Each structure stands twice: as C-alpha cells, then as structure tokens.
C-alpha cells in the first residue's frame, strides 16, 4: 500500500518540502553571505517590523470578526431555506469567486473614492456634509478584504449547518425551549466545527494578503506580504524577506494546528 503513495509523496516533496527548505536556508544568509541569525535579529531590532506584524494581525482579526458577523446569518439562512431559494442565494455567494480579486479590489477603489458611489450617496442623503476618506487607509483595506474573504467563511459553515438534524430544534421546542434558547444550546454548539474551520481559514488567508492592502491601503497600510516584497527590492540578498516569510509560515502553521485540534475536539464532543 505504501508503494502506491510514493509518487504522490514525491510530488509533495518537490512542490512543498524543497521550496520551504530553500526558503529556510535563505533566511540564515546575511548581507555578507555568511550564515547567522542576522535577518531574524533585524525583525526584533527595528520597530517598523514589529509595527508591521501588529498591523497585519490587527487587520486579520478585524476582517475575521466582520466575516463572522456577516457570514453566520447568511450561512444559517442558506441552511434553513428550501432547496430552490437556497440554491439562488448560494449562487450569489459564489459569484465573487468567478471574478478576479484584482478586479474586485479596483471596483472597491472606484466605489469608495471621494467621488465614488458611497460618498455621493452619503452626501445626497445629508448624512455627511463633505466626502470622507474611505480608501488609502485601514477602512478601505478592511472593506475590500471582507468582501473577498466572507465566502470562505460561509461555505464551511454552511456545510456544517446542513449536517445538523432539524429534528433537534423541533425537539427542543417541544420541551418548552424558546427559539433563542434552542439556537444557543443546540444549533450553535453543533455548528462550531464549521465555524472554527471557516474562521481559521479566513484569518490565515488574511495574514498573506498583498494586492488589496497595496491598492486600497495606498501605501499607508503595511502588511507582511508588502514588507516581503519591499525587502526583496531593497536588500541585496533575499535573507530578510525569507526570514519574514519563515516567521509568517510558523505563525500560520501554529494557527492551523490549533484549529485542527479544536475542530477535532468539537467533533468528538458532538
């Protein structure tokens, strides 16, 4: 049986293990070509690197929280609607996947600019007197990222909710439970595996965003991926960029491991 897996393992080794090993080795090569921890020390010695990591995690947390707030009700409605209407709503959720992320980012750049649709609508309704800055800042970056990432939360959450037996909610109601109490004590705990999986997926993907912060942030919002690109352009070696990539990879691996353990525990309790 093991021999049948050898070709697949070889492909994984070539496409994943070898590049990661090369990246790890490059992170220890300093500006003079020698081996050492110079590139990692650079991260702890320069406040700009620490601030960039703080910004990255703050944006990732904010985007994940907003995706959770927006995505859970949508997934719940998808799970309880009749198949016909559920299919139409699912189509609306999947449509963004058919459009390039770069195109969607540029669309938000047009919509949120000073003369864009949002500012014009707010001024026309009298909510604001003059256009407010919605792009080239944290606000525009988060809006664009939420639009791209919310389907990644809805899909695993919907799959988890569809697996919940609807008779459980009816049984809770039959013994006197209110709809809110039944949702909090029955439905919500059973949907936790999909909720955790989707949340971790969104959070991890947000850590590596590049195009959306670069365009909607206007150079004022710095994330790890942007700093990696700048390090490759500024430094004569790839060591600093490789060290940042390794740190990001380690954080991502920790998040994924924690999510796997949590999902496994929730599935066991279920």
TrEMBL record:
Protein's membrane topology: Multi-pass membrane protein
Example of a GO cellular component annotation carried by this entry: plasma membrane
Cross-referenced InterPro entries: MetI-like, MetI-like_sf
Subcellular location(s) of the protein: Cell membrane
Matching PROSITE patterns: ABC_TM1
Keyword tags: Cell membrane, Membrane, Transmembrane, Transmembrane helix, Transport
Pfam families per the UniProt record, alphabetical: BPD_transp_1
Name this protein carries in UniProt: ABC transporter permease
